[in-house]
Amino acid sequence: MRKEKLLEKKQEIMNSAVWYLNDIMTEDEIKMFSCQQLEKLVEITRRAEEKRESCSPFFTLSATEVLQKETGRIAVFEEDCICEESEAECLSGASESIYKECKRKMAETPFQPLSLES
């Protein structure tokens, strides 16, 4: 019973991890870590994800739409071309909630392009 509780606690910790960490870690791998180690791993991957997102020049709004962080312009990829979409068009589409969340993030955290210098 104690092992089951411990595994349950570890699964609970992993539920707060970024989705791809949960996708790649097996139950056997999770069992190898202590709860403290898993919490630290989840925290490190969360910070890495935040850093990666802050350096990316775009937010993904949908499979065909991106929001350029530096300019706030919305690009839509259609069959053989790239078009610009207005904010009103974006707000009337399926990506409305994602767009609003991205705009909130842009207001909170300025864009930090990756530096080629070490």
Number of strands: 4
Structural class: alpha+beta
As a percent range, the share of strand residues is 5-15%
- Average residue-wise pLDDT: 90
Strands in their spatial order, largest beta sheet: 1-2-3-4
Overall, the morphology is elongated
- When the domains are counted, the total is 2
Helix and strand run: HHHHEEEEHH
Count of alpha and pi helical runs: 6
Labels describing this entry:
6 helices, four-stranded antiparallel beta sheet, 2 domains, 118 residues, alpha+beta, 4 strands, elongated
List the SSEs and their pairings.
Elements: H1 2-14, H2 19-24, H3 27-32, H4 35-55, E1 58-60, E2 65-68, E3 74-78, E4 81-85, H5 87-91, H6 96-108
Antiparallel strand pairs: 1-2, 2-3, 3-4
Protein model, in words:
This protein is of the alpha+beta class. It has 2 domains: 2-55; 58-108, no CATH class. Helix content is 54%, strand content 14%. It is built from 6 helices and 4 strands. It has helices at residues 2-14, 19-24, 27-32, 35-55, 87-91, 96-108, and strands spanning 58-60, 65-68, 74-78, 81-85. It has a 4-stranded antiparallel sheet with strand order 1-2-3-4. A hairpin with a 4-residue loop joins β1 (58-60) and β2. α1 runs parallel beside α4 (35-55). The longest helix has 21 residues, at 35-55. It is elongated, with a radius of gyration of 19 Å. The termini are far apart. 10% of the residues are buried.
